Amino acid sequence: MKHFGTLTKRIGAICAMVIFLLTFTGPTTVRSATTLKLGFVTAADPRDPYYIASKKWAELIEKYTHGKYKVALYPSGQLGNESDMIRNIMVGTQDLGVITNAPTGSFVSSFMVLDMPFIFPSYQVAHKVLDGPAGKALLSKLDKINIKGLAFAEGGFRHMINNVRPIKTPADLKGIKFRVMKAPVYLAMFKALGANAVPMPWGEVFTAVQQHVVDGLEIPIPVIWANKFYEVTKYLSLTGHTYSPLIVMVSGNLWKRLSPEDQAAFQKAAMEAAQYERQTIEGIIQDLIAKLKAKGMKVNEVPDKRPFMEMVKPVYKQFEGKIGKDTLEMILKARDKAMKE
Question: Which CATH fold topology does 30-340 show?
Answer without folding.
Answer: D-Maltodextrin-Binding Protein; domain 2 (3.40.190)
